[in-house]
Write a structure and sequence with these properties.
The complex is a heterodimer. Helices cover about 70% and strands about 0% of the residues of chain A. By secondary structure, chain A is an all-alpha fold. The longest helix of chain B has 22 residues. Classes of the chains: A mainly alpha, B alpha+beta. At the A-B interface, helix 2, helix 6 and helix 8 of A face helix 7, helix 10 and helix 11 of B.
């Protein structure tokens, strides 16, 4: 009866946990860094953000498989194993309120917050969420559509919590990843690595919150004009009729436009 | 210098005196509450005790007094509280319990310091091991973990093999702290990734079948920081490292090194200040190399 062979998960536990650890950095963590820095480009103006979005969308039809292979699926894998790990742990900060233990608990809490936030975030802004009443981000009107979606103070507060949780989870995870893989082994090396992780976390937190503030501060009319001009230039360069540009093709920007 | 010390102790004495004269009776009494359990698997319940205070008491001497009087605070005759202890100098590792909510050894828990924290001393059995009775727990899994990682040097004959390989003073210094582990289980108690496993013998089960089932349950779960550190100790030993691969195989098996959640409580509570997280990170590095070797060398 207890002779039954261990489950697939038990047999490959080491491999699965190591892939989990790796996936937090590559590709999920790397994507987070690119994503937050791209968003922070809004601080350089609507045109600066729009040109970066255009660069990403220049992948054209490849964008969807790339998104799934390098962002959504690794993230789902990381989240699934993460929930198994959370379920198997018994946080005890009450009895042992050490810094490391607080971080252990926060890592799990922020992981769950990040999971919920990212699902909401994707539904709200990504086109996948359009059938659910979301999908508000329009890559042709990057700054104006993002700004519109983030105007509500409640949304902004939830975004700040979500972004900070995600950044903490990544920065702290970077530090634990180095221990897991044996990159830093001595207490002194762990302290140095910790300092680096803190800096990474602070830079990303600044980028994330900067992006959030920057998006909300966008002058929507002006941004829309910029986006329209850029769209026309793009179409001209592609040899198409600039007048046929989808000036306000997006339902959201049409509805709340003027 | 001497004067300063003198004046300090005088002030302390005066404070103690004033305290004693004022509110408390001449013989100070210590209040203790103990989470008791009569049989393994039974219900646990709190019982309160009171014993006279003596200078330099530790928790073991409090327990000895409680056993001697075998009476609860409200005067009922109760069975003496059971506990484990042996060396009374923080070397045997057998008297670990939860004192004021934290894992530590009873022999080195001084009563006067505890009373600075709380008015009443709270004693509970370790929560990660099955209770045998009162404060006595079954720490079999702790030792099973050491078996899993083969925490020994595999020499078991009586032939003269000549002198062993030399170990450099640097390596000795590196290994020595790891060898001071006393299997007290504090690291396991504080670890949020090491959870209690209590396997109960079924009515129709033979002793052998039960033992087998219990081992299987132990072997699927986290080995714990102590065993990881011992594996690293013996993998660094010139003779012990002859079976280094077997230890790494065990550490990368189900319940191995990957179960560590990097809370680092183990190193914080270790009474011997063993660099457990350094051992864990080294085991992580060794496991990384081992896994890559296994992948490409097969």
């Amino acid at each position: 009866m207890s002779e039954s062979t261990p489950s697939f998960f038990a047999r490959n536990q080491f491999l699965i946990y190591r892939l989990f650890s790796l996936s937090g950095l590559l590709p999920v963590g790397a994507f987070l860094v690119v994503h937050l820095l791209t968003n922070a480009s809004i601080l350089g103006g609507a045109a600066s953000f729009q040109s970066r979005v255009d660069m990403i969308h220049s992948l054209g039809p490849l964008l969807v498989p790339i998104e799934w292979a390098f962002i959504f699926l690794p993230m789902l894998f990381h989240a699934t194993v993460g929930f198994v790990i959370i379920a198997n742990g018994m946080p005890n900060v009450g009895s042992y309120p050490y810094v490391g233990n607080v971080r252990y608990t926060l890592q799990r809490a922020t992981g769950m917050i990040a999971f919920a936030f990212i699902i909401w975030h994707v539904i709200q802004l990504h086109w996948l969420g359009a059938p659910l009443g979301g999908g508000k981000f329009d890559p042709h009107h990057a700054s104006s559509s993002a700004s519109l979606a983030l105007q509500s103070p409640l949304v902004a507060i939830l975004y700040a919590i979500g972004v900070l949780s995600t950044v903490f989870h990544f920065a702290n995870g970077l530090w634990t990843l180095g221990i897991t893989w044996g990159l830093w082994t001595s207490p002194a090396a762990m302290r140095r690595a910790n300092a680096v992780s803190v800096v990474v976390g602070l830079v990303l937190a600044a980028a994330g919150l900067g992006a959030l503030g920057g998006m909300r501060a966008v002058d929507i009319e002006q941004a829309r004009a910029t986006e329209k001009r850029m769209e026309e230039v793009k179409r001209l360069l592609e040899g198409q009729d600039p007048a046929a540009a989808p000036a306000a093709s997006h339902p959201i920007s049409q509805k709340r436009g003027t | 210098m001497i004067k300063a010390v003198d004046s300090h102790s005088t002030a302390a004495d005066a404070a103690l005196g004033a305290h004693g004269n004022g509110h408390e009776p001449a013989a100070r009494r210590i209040r203790v509450r103990i989470l008791r359990q009569d049989v393994s698997g039974g219900e646990s319940y709190w019982e309160r005790f009171e014993v006279p205070h003596e200078p330099n008491m530790n928790v073991i001497s409090v327990l000895q007094k409680i056993a001697a009087q075998a009476k609860s605070r409200d005067g009922r005759a109760v069975a003496p509280v059971a506990w484990d202890c042996c060396c009374l100098e923080e070397v045997c590792g057998s008297c670990t319990m939860l004192i004021n909510g934290r894992t530590r050894m009873a022999c080195s828990a001084l009563v006067d310091k505890l009373l600075d924290e709380e008015e009443e001393i709270e004693l509970k059995p370790m929560s990660k091991f099955p209770v045998v009775r009162d404060l006595v727990v079954d720490r079999r899994r702790l030792f099973r973990s050491l078996e899993r990682v083969e925490a020994w040097v595999p020499v078991d004959d009586s032939y003269d093999h000549g002198p062993g390989p030399r170990i450099s003073p640097e390596d000795q210094e590196d290994a020595y702290p790891l060898s001071t582990c006393i299997s007290c289980g504090c690291c396991l108690e504080a670890c949020p990734q090491f959870n209690k496993i209590e396997v109960v013998q079924r009515d129709d089960e033979t002793a052998e079948a039960f033992e087998k089932r219990r081992k299987a349950a132990f072997d699927a779960a986290f080995v714990g920081p102590h065993a990881i550190s011992q594996a690293m100790l013996f993998n660094s030993h010139p003779t012990g490292k002859m079976i280094a691969d077997e230890r790494l195989e065990a550490l990368t098996d189900a319940g191995g090194i990957q179960m560590c959640g990097n809370a680092q409580n183990c190193v914080a509570v270790c009474p011997k200040s063993i660099p457990l997280t350094r051992s864990i990170a080294r085991a992580g590095r060794a496991a990384t190399v081992w896994a890559i070797k296994k992948l490409f060398d097969r």
